[in-house]
């Protein structure tokens, strides 16, 4: 049985390539500064993209963003 929060994550949110790149880096546990350096954006821009990702996906936290990325196939789930 799925929990209510998991059921509310839309799998079909329309994300830009930059948003997908930032989401993948979040899933790799990169810090905001590491992401900003890697994609050549300011810290504030990365924070804005992260916040926009939360709105688009319905996630309430970084853990929710990771769940979205796994469910939508953006990243692969690894066995524990």
What can you tell me about this protein's structure?
With 80 residues, the chain is an all-alpha fold. The protein has a domain at 18-71: Arc Repressor Mutant, subunit A (Orthogonal Bundle). It is 60% helix and 0% strand. It has helices spanning 4-7, 17-27, 32-39, 43-57, 62-71. α2 (17-27) packs across α4 (43-57), α2 packs across α5 (62-71) and α3 (32-39) packs across α4. The longest helix is centred in the middle third of the chain and has 15 residues, at 43-57.
C-alpha-based Rg, rounded: 12 Å
Task: Give the overall average pLDDT.
Answer: 87
Number of helices: 5
Query: Which architecture of the domain at 18-71 per CATH?
Result: Orthogonal Bundle
How would you sum up this structure in a few lines?
The protein is mainly alpha-helical. It is built from five helices and no strands.
